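Researcher: Go.
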Amino acid sequence: MREKIKILIIGPTPPPYFGTAVATQKILQNEKLNEKFDLLHLDTSDRRGVENIGRWDLQNIKLAIFHILKLFLLLLKKKVNLTYIPIAQNVPGFLRDGIFILISKLFGKKVVCHLRGSYFRDFYERTNSIMRFYIKLCLKKVDRMIVLCERLKKIFSGLIDDKKISVVPNGLPVRELRRRKGEHFLYLSNLSAGKGVFFALNGLKILDKDLHFKFIFAGNWRNSYDKKKAIEIIKSFKKIDVQLVGAVKGEEKSELMSKSIALIFTPVHKEGMPWVIIEALSYGLPIISTDRGCIPDMVKDGENGFIVKDEKDLAEKIKILLENEELREKMCRKSREIFLNYYNEDKSMEKFIEVFHLTFSSKG
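Model: Structure:
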């Protein structure tokens, strides 16, 4: 029997829950990938919480040193053929990830890196000349880079040969559709100003004079200041019933999704391919979002939702969905169609298999 290609998956797993951790867990647990390859895991999790990601602190430095030493020992002891590394978009994180790349190449391994965001170019251009030199040095060693959508390939212009860049969208398992009569609008995310919480609240303020409806914010707060500020705004609402329900998962999340009129997710900072939008697509929800990262590929403006420019635009689009049931149903069908065609887990994992085989068989 032919020996399987042995792949070392480097990355965090939940908790805490954030994009890269969720994605790493899905790769490790996927039956198709485990059938095709022998997967090992170097867990880089920091269980303290998402607020510690990318920070300069003693614990992060200790963790980085520990993970680097662990990688060295794994490559020394195990017959690894290829390492998979989701790269960070901040100085502390990429310093560590760059060492992962260089050590892997020192041992003669093929390296696949994965950008699960969209602001790597901004990060690169903001750094000093020494850091830029280090980034270029590390990226030259990469055999293949994965991005989430075609529009993100340009991030690596001048840093990686375009022929070495592959597109692999995120994907979720196909579940039975459980749509019920919409009871509320839903905002589901880690909650912060950057994720668009105040963008959404300011849009609701515009509607509070005229409309009655229920709006739910679900998720953990990134910091206490944003939470305090949001609660003060929510207390001022007269007609709209705004609720903060905390983090949700499992059946509780499924219930919220199933009973939603639409998902509202309006990030103002950079995004990659948000998992929450793929979840909303899988539930056949209309989606209102902003033009960040891959979102316009997922939310076709006017077809399965709206891409909004500002708070006034958001308010107008919420009102349109509230008052037009026929349009909502049309958008529900389109969201489900987009999910099945582009963002289901089987298609995503098939692309991973292609990338791993292509990288392993390539020369150099």
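Model: The chain has two domains: 5-171+344-361, 184-342.
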